[in-house]
Amino acid sequence: MQRALDEATAALATQDVPVGAVVLDQNGGVIGTGRNERVAVNDPLSHAEIVAIRAAAATHGNYRLDDCTLVVTLEPCLMCTGAVMQARIGRVIFGAWDAKAGACGSAWDVVATNRSPHKLSVTGGVREAECAQLLTDFFRARRGKRPN
To answer: 53-91: per-residue pLDDT in tens?
Structure first.
């Protein structure tokens, strides 16, 4: 999760929402990293998870990332959860829950209602306070509010 947090922090340099992601192979090696780049590259699809999955597929030489794990600082949205399933990633570990757009148990639970043969395990709340604080600080500064 630390590597994902480092990616999230790097997203601040381009005014992107600080979300970071890392794809690990079956041995725990990093095969892809990503951070939100929607502002940086003017692409609404450039969520941290999508960037990391694309990098991992390129490294792996295959779009199927069976036995891989996605570690991300924020619960994946609908688009990203769909991408995880299409890439056949077996496990997602995330930090902060996203009550407004999360699709792994918060706003939606795509994983639980998944009808495809691909099964996915999800663990949420890993280093949750740290991941959530990064987002809280970003949005507070963006709205010009002072910390409490």
So the answer is: 999 999 999 999 999 999 999 999 999 999 999 999 999
State the pTM of this model. Answer: 0.94
Helix (H/G/I), strand (E/B), else coil: 6:
helix
Return all residues near 98 (Cβ < 8 A) that are at least 6 apart.
74, 75, 77, 106, 107
Q: Beta strands 20-24 and 69-74: pairing type? A: antiparallel
How crowded is residue 126: how many other Cβ atoms within 10 Å of its Cβ? 16
Phi, psi of 57 (to 5 degrees): -65, -40
Instruction: Just list the catalytic residues.
Output: 49
Which is nearest to 62 in space by CA: 92, 23, 111?
Answer: 23
Q: Which residue is associated with the tokens 């795509």?
A: 110
Torsion angles phi and psi, residue 73, rounded to 5: -75, -20
